[in-house]
Target: Sodium:proton antiporter
Amino acid sequence: MQENLAIGILCVLGGGIGAQWLAWRFRLPAIVLLFALGLIYGPGLNLLHPSAAIGRYFHPMVSLAVAFIVFEGGLGLDFRQWRAAGEGVLRLTVVALPINLVLGTLAAHFVGHLHWGASWLFGAIIVVTGPTVVLPLLRHTKLRPRVAAFLRWEAILNDPVGAILATLVLEFLMILGNRHSGMFVAEIVPHLLFATMMGVGCGIFPAVLVRFLSRRDLIPEILRIPIILTLAMSVFAICNFFMEGAGLMAATVFGMALANLHVLGMSELRRIKESLGVLVVSCLFVMLTADLHREVLARLSLPIVAMTLTVLFVVRPVGIFLSTVRSGLSWQERLFVGWIAPRGIVAAAVAGAAGLQLSDAGYPSADLVMPGVFALIATTMILHGFSLRPVARALRLTLSDDPALAIVGASAWSTDLAGVVHRLGCPVVLVDTYAGALTAATRAGIPTLRTELLSDEGMESLEERPADYLIAATPDAIYNGLVCARLAPDFGRQRVFQVSPGVARLDLYRGLSRDSRGRVLGEPAWNFTLFETLFERGWRFRAMPPVAAPSGGAPAMSSGSADGNRLMILTVRKGTAIWICSAEDATPVEPMAGDIDVVMEPPAPPEQTGLA
Model:
């Protein structure tokens, strides 16, 4: 028993996180790797069958994990983003859903040869686009903010609505099977309205309570996040007791309410829930895919394949086209959203439970609902996972894929540095709170951003021009550290830099904590005053090929002193990365053909300029 448990934990946790790392390292869709891993563990090697090992607690555990995922997604749904995205979000979550239900049902009946009862259940299940699939894909693709908002809102809002819709269709079919159709109006509709109102109320009330207690200092910081997570799981369980699917709505509303009530301490929760979300999604996908039986795969037939292709190339595009007629969406956005619609965990979980109940009730072809949904999940994850980035790039809905640099603090020397990087064709943005400081950069055609990066508005503004590296170059060393500490979880701690706060402050024990600052730009002696003084003496930034090794060995590097020939700042490898020099580098960068160094050099002597 202990050996089986150890093998299961190793397969699910180790394999899932390993797949996530491979996806990050080689820029692959993580969901596809997790799906393939589950197929290998389960139907392939017959090594892992979670439902058999865990028993009747498996599906409740899956439902609880899905509740956490939609709660996490709800925390990212700020109504200010909804207003920025426009009416397209409302159309995708309200108008497109019933259209996709009808078209999906027709495709299941006339193409997949399912009977009407099973067809309606299939159509209700496939209206959802899972946040467990969409959100990881969005993290790895630099989509334009409005398009990303379309997909994010649709996935998170449609997930609980789709689960409730599938439950409603299943109950209606069960009533028809018992020949008590009058019960639908007499009992089911009031029950649905009650469960919906309860889900919304149970989501809003605890968020207001948390805000009330937080403002009066009645929640200790050490208990804030445990209390919020406990409330999220509790509202899910309470509402699900009254109606299957209502719990997902309550968890989503709770997350949205916390985000829009601006409860203090949410920044720490967002960081923790993102890490937990990666872990939960990895485990869920591996377990649910591994739990598929070979008998389910054996039921895949030509009509089911044709039905899957019809949903992909007819149902979804037509539904999006009809629901966005005379909207503000461009044809590129409509085409892209009509193609990208991966299904995920909720569709798989609902199909497994509802299909079995419908089959037990005696509905013909109900046993084909699960294979049909599985075929759609597998196809959409693979096709949409690999095609999202190239399709978005072809439709010009992505921001630049080249590594981008943000420089905070618009001084004379930092503006010159931004100008050199900009002329190299590398995306760069110069950030400052004072409009006058950005005037010179604006005149030179350098992209600028006037905002306070430590504000919510500043973070949202920077997301619209996503950067991969950051240099905090203001005269205030403490402010530079705050900016780097705030953005380190998003950029990565190895990608945020600041001008040196001073040699004494870099002591790892007595100086500024490494967690409270960025990596040092250049050498410890290169503080803001040094750069400013050198610039006043005529030193300027310049792009040049890497310095050749003196004798075929390691590449020549700057001595790091201000009285040398140059100060080595960074190396640009177009389309790949930016290496910013730091005394805290583990290893120096090995130059390659095509690399360009950006250095700070003194003015050329008169004999080199031809002047007297």
Notes: The chain has 24 helices and ten strands. The longest helix spans residues 182-215. The longest strand covers residues 567-573.
